[in-house]
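Honest question from a wet-lab person: if I give you the sequences of every part of a complex, can you actually get the arrangement of the whole thing, not just the pieces? Trying it with mine:
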Amino acid sequence: MNIVALAGGVGGAKLVDGLAQALSPENLAAIVNTGDDFEHLGLLISPDLDTVCYTLAGLANPDTGWGRDAETFRALENIRNLGGPDWFTIGDQDLGTHLERTRRRRSGQSLSRVTKDFCQAWGIKQSVLPMSNELVQTIVDTEEFGELAFQEYFVHHKCEPKVKGFRFTGSENAHPAPGVLEAIGSADAIIFCPSNPWVSIDPILAVPGIHQAIAQLPIIAVSPIIGGIAVKGPAAKMFKELGIEPSALSIAFHYRDLLTGLILDNVDSELIKESPIPAYATNTLMRTREDRRRLAEDVLHLIRAK
Amino acid sequence: MNIVALAGGVGGAKLVDGLAQALSPENLAAIVNTGDDFEHLGLLISPDLDTVCYTLAGLANPDTGWGRDAETFRALENIRNLGGPDWFTIGDQDLGTHLERTRRRRSGQSLSRVTKDFCQAWGIKQSVLPMSNELVQTIVDTEEFGELAFQEYFVHHKCEPKVKGFRFTGSENAHPAPGVLEAIGSADAIIFCPSNPWVSIDPILAVPGIHQAIAQLPIIAVSPIIGGIAVKGPAAKMFKELGIEPSALSIAFHYRDLLTGLILDNVDSELIKESPIPAYATNTLMRTREDRRRLAEDVLHLIRAK
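Yes, you can. This is the full assembly:
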């Protein structure tokens, strides 16, 4: 059974890791959000791709979910001491990734080529694909500051500004990265990982061709919202600010035209009867690697049962 | 007494540090070679400026003389693991310097402005000046590979190719950096630090205006060659390959039109009588910080005595 997972950062990466534990490597492809990609200190940074890769490679910081394990921050300390911008936390090992990615991309290599090579170097056997090789930028429209690039909103402003909407600049002219439509074409089902719908999954769906390609397939979403709050990140806050009650149901309604199933947490099982699409409850919180595998198997079980 | 020291990397930085111990900060300016500056991994790197600054700030690696003390190399290890270029050793703390310098310069700040700000952040009270804000590149003409940019010759090829000559591209249109001619104008004497004459001091002298400005002043050179060998680096090898017997005397002849005095090592004291300019022997090897101060005071004593 071939599975394509759409993923953002930490939460998405954890389920991708669970799927990697449950499936043969050749049966799993992850299409990863690059709408958060940005240039900082002259470096081309792809936060979600790195989080997915570090997680699959066993290199991720288990406490934060992003960045490298056993990381040091000596370059950043020096930058701070020199009065430079220190609002985006980059560790020393992580810097190596950004420097080498930037070097390769500036020499003409595509993001998907670089990602493929990095996966090989890190021993990742699954297919990890950026959603597009072209620049698509998630822009958060805020009440206080107007439009902000995602990292400005997310890291610099700590998700504090009140959200009015989103757009994905460049998406209209972007193309799915090599391998994306092929992976979808041979997929038996699509999984929306428990990632932020507004700024992790929607940017992927905004790349022309991807929405259309997945629309004919079974699509299961795992709710990133448990008991009305987001496990990580601003998803629940965003729903609220847009006038939508944050809950697993708001995920179901957000994707109602695409989903064939929704997986929500046991604490939200009473919502199942109100769901516009078939919903199933399980334990969706992934604290351990074993949790990731168990949730992945629950999702795969649902796909097989349909 | 105002002193201007012309310096390259490690040996030069050590004498500058000795002079900094012996003089009030306002009496010392170092004009530093930038002919070795290069771009690597997208970073604008100024090796000699960094060595002089790290040394003055007490941040330099005491074993190598270059790079930072108690340094780690985790970014570089990751770059190596990803198949990237690892021939130029950059430590993690050092990376912060290069990233922030690059960010500032790409935003339009001059190298001298950046250097001034970095010196302030590092608590350096002496004036450390790049020779020029414009790009001057030391090119080493070699028998095996033709012309090589300096770092290619120095680090990548480990100084192995046989040298035929040197040129300093861009020097004809370069200007002394702000403060350089002012420092020389108020100097009582010039010191050529024990740096490589071919690739550390000559590039500084190749910047139009500097040679002319110093020519009227007392100029004392400290020989980087002791007993026919260079304390560090390829100076002796370069003299040999150019058909010149490497010795403290070859330094005297190299600069004979400029120098008013040469300081050579006690082991070379028998060369004094053959020197084309007045020469003086002392212990010129700088193993400790105290050695640096003692040599600086010997040089200053000679200047005062003249």
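Two things worth pointing out. Chain A touches chain B at residues 41-43, 72, 74-79, 81-85, 92-97, 99-100, 102-104, 106, 117-118, 121-122 (CB under 8 Å). Chain A has one domain: 3-36+125-305.
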